[in-house]
Design a protein that fits this description.
By secondary structure, this protein is of the alpha+beta class. 19% of the residues lie in helices and 44% in strands. It has one domain.
Amino acid sequence: MRRHLAVLVFAVIGAAPAAALDLPARKPGLWQLDMTFVGRKLPPQSIKECLDAATDKLMNANISGAGAGVTCSKQELSRSGATLTVDSVCTANGATVTSHAVVTGSFDSAYTVDVTSTRTGGPPMPGAAPGAPHESHTTIAAKWLGPCQPGQRAGDMIMGSGRTVNILDLQKQMQAAPQR
């Protein structure tokens, strides 16, 4: 179960566009993200995220790889009306990922992220078929559900299984873990 959670969190972070860029802030509250993965042996996933302005900003920083040994030689954001396009080339742990993401919709109600990525070097991607090309296509459909539920705190990620993990707690654990 712990490995599945790690794969899912990695998939969410890896699927989103590299974002040390100026992405719009999402509306605070409870968001549902439905993800589909093509080219990897991962079933569709659904996560609910309880966000406030600070945790949304933190999640965008984590997506960009800030402080996680990620270096990006290219991060370009372009806008055309309500459509954002993000092109990036980033390297971490011996792997280089070239991504093209198109984001459409509203960060106040519902948006879609369509990401195509090519990965070279490094270990195989979690969920990738053995010998398969390191190419993937991920779609994230996000919608705002309303205020966070009673008992939820900002940063809570509620997995499809019902398990809750808090991004702030994960960040503290990662900072406390010995570096290898």
